[in-house]
Amino acid sequence: MKCDTGTNRARPGLDQALAAVRACDTLVVPKLDRLARSVPDARDIGDTLVARGVRLSLGGSIYDPADPMSKMFFNMPAVFAEFEADLLKTRTREGMAIARSHGKLSGLACRHCNTWLETCPHSSGCAWGDYLNNPPAAHLGLAHPRAAISRKPRRSGA
């Protein structure tokens, strides 16, 4: 499942903002990490805007690719934004691994009745593997097929 986050370049809000600006406009972004979470994406967006004649305002400063100081103050926050995103991913993976090793993160639960999918009454006798390919969303009247599934920490002794 794809989310609309800063780590994903294909975001509807970003696409709409980039499509709406025209030559001589200024795209105002409070912080660079709101625009992009990787150096290549930030540079690509910045270069695209400059090529179209659109100015980019980052935190009140106009980005000018012809000025070495401006380029530095554009690239440094991009490096830190990418580092922050990578650090967040690493910490999340480590935390999930620790939780799994303590038995606190395992299995999927039905959001409708909050029971384990293996024992969910909405399952119609489906095997465990079928939930990942064909979740019970249709039985529950949910629009998104994954909307019926959530992570549920398994309690020790359960």
TrEMBL record:
This is Resolvase, N terminal domain. It comes from Streptosporangium canum. Pfam families: Resolvase (PF00239). Signal peptide: none annotated. The lineage of its organism: Bacteria, Bacillati, Actinomycetota, Actinomycetes, Streptosporangiales. Keywords: DNA recombination, DNA-binding. SMART domains: Resolvase. Residues 1-103 form the Resolvase/invertase-type recombinase catalytic domain. CDD domains: SR_ResInv.
